């Protein structure tokens, strides 16, 4: 095994769980998230020599988000509604209820708005980093985040969206 292959394997071993979470939050389906991550890692591996010297994680995030948006657009065109199931994790009853509420609200967002919320609030990226991952301007990130948060507030009633987001990924 070459040094580049070893470096890629180490990267995957260290970051796969976090990247799978990004994929799940981007699409809302566990099986599709695994497929998105596999696609992103395959593309990353093919470009590893170029990507590894920079920071590979933002590259993989961008591939995941772009792939999730493309798939959502294809489904909208084909009018396919995927069956979604949350990942099986032990949690308190109230945490599970909050996560279900939040995931339902996230799924209702357009893909680009969902991506902004995932990157900004779950991955804790800055507006500039989020814009870089999505290939857009900081202004677009701000407007998409504002629109998404307004929709989440409406969907979740008067509950504090920030509190729900904080509890859902704690």
UniProtKB/TrEMBL annotation:
InterPro entries, per database record: RNA_pol_sigma-70-like, RNA_pol_sigma-70_dom, RNA_pol_sigma-E_actinobac, RNA_pol_sigma70_r2, RNA_pol_sigma70_r4_t2, RNA_pol_sigma_r2, RNA_pol_sigma_r3/r4-like, WH-like_DNA-bd_sf
Coiled-coil segments on the chain, per record: none
Protein name: SigE family RNA polymerase sigma factor
Organism annotation: Nonomuraea phyllanthi
A GO term, aspect molecular function: sigma factor activity
Top-level taxonomic group: Bacteria
Pfam families: Sigma70_r2, Sigma70_r4_2
Domain RNA polymerase sigma factor 70 region 4 type: 100-152
Gene Ontology biological process terms from the UniProt entry: DNA-templated transcription initiation
Family affiliation: Belongs to the sigma-70 factor family. ECF subfamily.
Keyword Hydrolase: no
């Amino acid at each position: 095994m070459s040094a580049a292959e070893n470096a890629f394997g180490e990267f995957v071993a260290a970051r796969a769980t976090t990247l799978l979470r990004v994929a799940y939050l981007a699409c809302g389906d566990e099986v599709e998230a695994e497929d998105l991550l596999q696609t992103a890692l395959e593309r990353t591996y093919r470009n590893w020599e170029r990507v590894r010297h920079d920071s590979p994680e933002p590259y993989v995030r961008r591939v995941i988000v772009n792939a999730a948006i493309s798939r959502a657009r294809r489904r909208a065109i084909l009018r396919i509604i995927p069956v979604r199931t949350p990942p099986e994790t032990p949690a308190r009853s109230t945490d599970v209820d909050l996560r279900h509420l939040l995931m339902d609200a996230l799924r209702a967002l357009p893909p680009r708005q969902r991506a902004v919320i995932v990157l900004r609030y779950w991955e804790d990226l800055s507006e500039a980093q989020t814009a870089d991952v999505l290939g857009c301007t900081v202004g677009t990130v701000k407007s998409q985040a504002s629109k998404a948060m307004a929709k989440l507030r409406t969907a979740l009633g008067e509950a504090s969206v920030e509190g729900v987001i904080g509890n859902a990924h704690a």
